[in-house]
Amino acid sequence: MLEPSPPCNTDPAWYADDPTDPSGAEAMLVTPIPGEGITWDQKASEHPELIAFAASHWLGCYRRLQPLPEGYDSTRRALHQLAFFAVAPKRHSSTGKIGLRYTHLGFGTPFFGADEQIRVEGGVIVRQQGASVASEEATTVARACELLEIPYRQSWFERLRDPLEPAGETTALVVSPAAAVAIEDWFGFGASVLEQVRRTEGAPEVGRLQLWPEHFDLGFEMGSGSQRATYGASPGDDRHPEPYLYVARWEASDRSNPFWNDPTFNGASLSYRILLESDDQHIAARDFYEHAYRLLG
Q: Which single residue of 2, 51, 156, 293 has CA 20 to 30 Å from 39?
């Protein structure tokens, strides 16, 4: 599964499972990763009733990304506020970790503490504690913090280099349902591609895929020394009005190579527009990451 389904993990290095790690499996897996078991595409070809489930969870039978709806930018900013000022602090209060992840219909924490998970599904905050589930439409960040039983603060995680500017305690969060679906689809698409890239044969020092609340993007690190880079998928930011895939080098890029094309950071990006124009969006995304990996040596 690309979304967290097992109970909380007590490994202090992560306090989270690795959703696509096949090690330790005692039975044949149904997996989104080719070569590590039966893929969801294969399983769905035998059992057509699974097609809708696999597509909805971005496990296989992949849907195409669609043009962005109206209200996308304001929705992205509102969900970013929830991620940074409410969801991540709630996980941090229990584990000292801030990393989030893609979850079905949105994003959220891994399970933590007493079998607890916080999710954002569309514009709804969901708090699951064991078999008990409470949910509420997101109105303000302060109200979300109240639901999660943590204080509202305008400053979290001072060690981060670029914390998000707070919207304010009483500022209404504007979430368009259609735009929230587009963001969930972007994170699902990004997770489905990046989890495959993580399995690059022979790649050294591969990190785990996380949704970082300060940037509100998916990413993981791979490679050692001058080869090390972050491979990620952003839903957009102040300098990129639409989603984009990226490879951010940890050492200086050779700007004489046109592949390293993004003027706003040290690396390369692939725009949402190019993905929309691609015959096969997953292949286009994997080709982008694989080309970057080859260039890095």
A: 293
Cβ atoms within 10 A of the Cβ of 123, count? 21
Q: Rounded to whole angstroms, what are the CA distances from 221 to 230, 233, 281?
A: 4, 12, 22
Two structure tokens written together for 276: 């929309």
Give the C-alpha distances (Å, rounded to integers) separating 41 from 2, 45, 49, 281: 15, 6, 12, 16
- Give pLDDT tens digits for 218-234: 999 999 999 999 999 99
Q: Cα dihedral sign for 46, 47, 52, 56?
A: negative
pTM, 2 dp:
0.95
Within 8 A by CB and 6+ apart from 297, the residues are 226, 227
How high is the pLDDT of residue 158?
73
The Cβ of residue 130 has, within 10 Å, a number of other Cβ atoms equal to 9
Question: For residues 63 and 276, what is the distance between their CA atoms, to the nearest angstrom?
Answer: 12
Taking the C-alpha atoms of residue 243 and residue 224, their distance in angstroms, rounded to an integer, is: 27
pLDDT at 5 over 70: no
- Cα angle value 285/288/290 (rounded, 5°): 105
Contacts of 231 (CB under 8 A, 6+ apart): 194, 197, 219, 220, 221, 222, 246, 247, 289, 292
292 backbone dihedrals φ, ψ, rounded to 5°: -60, -45
Asked if 172 and 140 touch (Cβ cutoff 8 Å), the reply is yes
Q: How many CB atoms lie within 10 A of CB 296?
A: 18
241 DSSP 8-state letter: S
- CA-CA-CA-CA torsion sign (141, 145, 151, 156): negative
Q: Are 21 and 29 in contact (CB under 8 A)?
A: no
